[in-house]
Amino acid sequence: MDYINLLESVTSDKWKKIGVSRRAGVCVPLFYIHSSKSIGIGEFYDLIHIAQWCKSTGQSIIQLLPLNELGFDFAPYNSTSTFALEPSFISLRKIKGVKLYSYKKLFQSLKEKYSHHKSHINYQIKSDKLKVLKLIFSENDFSRSLNFKKFKQENEFWLQKYAAFKFLKQKFKNEQWCNWDDNFLDCNEQLISELEAKNRKIFEFYYWLQWQLYEQLKYVKSFCNNLGIFIMGDIPLLVSRDSVDVWSQQNYFELHNSAGAPPDMYFSKGQRWGMPPYNWGNIANDNWKYIKNKLKYAENFFNMYRIDHFVGLFRIWSIPLSIPEEFSGTKGNYEPLHEYLWESHGKKIISEMVSATDMLPCAEDLGTVPECSYQVLKEFGIPGMDVMRWNKIYTDGFDFKAPTDYRKNSISVISTHDSSFSPVWWKYEAGTVDEFLVRKILSDLKFNDLEIPEILNTLFDIELSGNGRLVWNKEIDKPYKIIHILKNTNELVNELIGLYISSFDEKKKFINLLGLKSDELNVDFIKATLTKINQSSSVFSIQLLTEYLYLESEFLVKRVKPEFRINFPGIINKFNWSLVCDYSTEQIKKLKINQTLSEIFKNTDRFFEL
Prior knowledge:
By secondary structure, the chain is an alpha/beta fold. The protein is built from 24 helices and 16 strands. Among the domains are: 249-298 and 311-360, no CATH class; 432-504, no CATH class.
C-alpha cells in the first residue's frame, strides 16, 4: 500500500518521524485497565504492561482517552484544566524523592478498600489518593529537588492559576466559579499573588502533585518509545465551563453560549454539552498562545494526538444559554454562520496547531461533517476516522464500503468509546432503528397516541424488538411500502425512509462484507471482523482493547450486554467512563488470543518489529 502522498502533505515533517508504514494499535481508556500494583483505577505505570503486550503482538500505537483532570461527572471530555493531569492516575508506589517503605501499609489498606473485583470504578478513590498524597507531601521536604524547581519555572504560566483555582474550589465548597464571591470572579495577577502568599503550602502541594504526574507519564512515554511504540494522546476540543481555563481566560470563550450538535438520526433533539464555544478572534489576537501552549505541554507525553470533534474547528453548533434546556440542541446555529467561511476558518486554526508541535495530529471527524473537512484532512495529511459500521455507500439501497476503499489518511475502527462494542451492536442494534426517533417522527406527522402503536405494529416486528430498538417487518422490503402505510409524502416520511434504507438487511450485508456464511455471534465472527478492519487501506488500524478481548470465548459469552459500554452520550450516570476490564494487564499479556492477533497483523501487513 502506497502512502507517499502523506510525505507530500503539510504534515510531512511529522510523518518522516513517525514513518508512513501500515500500523496497528489499541485504544485504552486508562481507567479501564488495572494491574496487580495499581490502586482502585488504572495508573500511568499500568501502560508499561500494555506496551509490552503491544510489542509481543506487533502493535505500535497506544491511543489514550484524555488524561486531563476530571470534573464532577468524571467525563474525560469535560476536563477542568487543559494542562493538569488527573491525580487518580498516579502510581503511588512510583512517587519520586520519597522513602516509600514507610507508607507500604497505607498503600496496602487503600488497595484492599478498592479491590478490582467490581465492574465499575468507584471514583471515591480520587479523594482517598489525594489524602495519601497530601500526607506524603507534608512529611517530606522537596525544596532541594532541582527537577521540581525546573518544572515550576517552566510551567509557571499555568501552574499558578491552576493552584489558585483548586484552592478557591475548596474554599467555596466546590461551587462553580461563576458562583464565587465577586472579588474572586476575575482572575488577575494581583489576586493570584495574594492567594499564593497567604496559602503557599497549599499552592506548593498542587505544584508538587502535577510534577509527580508529569514525571510518571513522561517516563511511560520514554519506555514505550524505546519499544518502538508511539503514544497517541487525546486533546479535547472544549473544556468544562467550570474549569481553570475558562475562569482565568474568560475572553477566550463565549460564556453566553453552549456548544453542542444539531439534531441528527442518532439524537433527534440534538445535543447540548454545556461547554462554552471559543472566541477564536480573541485567541488569534493573542497570537494563538492558548493553543500553542497546551500542545507544547502535551508533547511531553505524546508522539501523536487526536483532535476531538475535529469538525468543530470549521464550525461549532452554538446554543444561547437563554434557550430552555428542554430544547436541547434544536435551537442553535453554526459559528461561523455562513458556510463559505468554514474552510478558511478551520484551516487557520489547524495551521496554528500543526506548526505548534512536532506531534502528528489525527482527527475525530465524525457526526455531521462539512464537505471541506475531507479536502483539508487530505491536504494536511491528517488521518480521519473510518468507522466500520457507519461506513456505507448508497446507490439503490446501501452497502458497506469495502475497507480496502477507506481513505488512506484514516484510522480504521470497529467501534468508538461513544458507541456500543461490535458484538453488542450485532446482537441488539444491527438492522434496527431507534424507537424514540421513530415515535417522534410519527408524532411530528400528527399521528395520535392510538394510531402510533398500530403503525409500529405494521412497520416493525415488535416481538423481536427491544432495548429501545425496532426491527423491521420482513414484509417492508421496499421504501414505497412505508409511504403506502403512512399515506404521506411529507419530508419527515423521507427521514423515516432514510432510516429504513440505512438499516434494512444490515446484518445480511455485513455478513457478506466479512465473507461469512453464518450470522452467529461467535469467535469466528470476531476474528473475521478484526481481520477485515485490518485489511483496510487506512494507514492506521486502532481498536478499543475490548474489541480484541472478544476473541476470548468466555469474555464473548459474558460481555455482550447493552449496558456494557464505555459511554452513553448525553447521559450522566455512575456507569459512564467507569468500566473495569475483566483481566489485569498481567493477564492480558498471557492470553491465548495474542497469537491470533499477531497472525492477523502479520497477514494484513501491520505487524511492527523494531
